[in-house]
Amino acid sequence: PFPFPPARKRKMPERKKLNVGQFIASEKDAYKIESILGSGGFGDVYKVVCVKDEQRKYAMKTEYFYPRKRKLLNRLKAVFLKSETDLEVEMGVFTEISHAPLTRKKHFIQMVDKGQTDLFKFIVMEIVSHSLEDIRKYMLSGSSRWQTAIKVASQTLIAISDLHSVGYIHRDIKPHNFAIGRPQMHSQIYMLDFGIARRFTDKGGMVRVPRERVTFLGTMKFASRQCHLEQEQSRKDDLEVWIYMVVELFEQENLIWRRQTDRGQILQLKERLFSHTDDLDLRMPNGFKKIMEYMKKLNFADEPDYAHLDNILWTCAKAEKLDMAQQFDWIDKVMPEKTKPKKKAPAARLENDDDSADRRRRQRREEKAKKAADDKKKDVS
């Protein structure tokens, strides 16, 4: 419901990073920290090398045990028997993918190990190269040639289809969560980060009944309209956000809400993108609008026709007379060295940053507010 309450800043507990050269052991292997690759709300991602074989380099993702969070999770598990941390969800997705047919695995990295220390849980995964967000922002100056955009759209669509085939929706589709492979695999795109993924089918394979209210998850720039409305998401929501990602790759100015910070205004502009598509000066193949029209007709439980959507992409390429044999724009280019950014204004932060940590803080705050409102209603009655 609107208006949304203003966000209150809340300091996260201080978290000490692992040191370069530090050793972390699982039951079957040991790993040495080489460098830090990134940080999130409850953990970090490190580049590690296997102690037994220094030719084997991986990514290690950690999730820390914060005492208050741990107590809350234990209480939730006692009541609901199914509350999971982000890392536990991610391990569940990796397990399902490992059982999928080989043809459904090519856009996913493998989880090779897992374990925990007294301070954190961790998983060890195959390592990838640059994210699509870093490529777009730093190597391609915001946008790409249409050939590249369509080929990226095709590979990421197939990845979404493959994830849905094992019964999960991602719920955090964005260019930050796709990456290209290591040097010999720079033309291959991988889907990453399943921390807020959700199983959308029950044990019998039927679509689960939607919950009445779901806390806002993800990033405002790349959140579906259902997410804004705090409604249950389904396969069509992953596709909707995929459209935002692809439209931005054609031309970053296509995302007409990219400089907005108000959730209500962002939702209105997303509605406008679908309701007044022809009135907007969007720089993209005209045929791509057919995908947007198709998505608008999908209902909550519908299974999208992914092959049909992929066919529309390649029809767009043919209509625009694009040479699809050309390599991706990033091939043979070097990623510029990133400088530490200055403190950004809210609009710039929304445009450029992944706010996963903000998402977790916002989720806790909204759950607390809802509980207080429910308690107040009980007192009145």
TrEMBL record:
Top-level taxon of origin: Eukaryota
Signal peptide start and end residues: none
GO function terms (MF aspect): ATP binding; protein kinase activity
Keywords: ATP-binding, Nucleotide-binding
Pfam families in the record: Pkinase
InterPro entries: CK1_Ser-Thr_kinase, Kinase-like_dom_sf, Prot_kinase_dom, Protein_kinase_ATP_BS
Region (Disordered): 335-381
Amino acid composition bias (Basic and acidic residues), ranges on this chain: 364-381
Keyword Metal-binding in record: no
Name of the protein in its database record: Protein kinase domain-containing protein
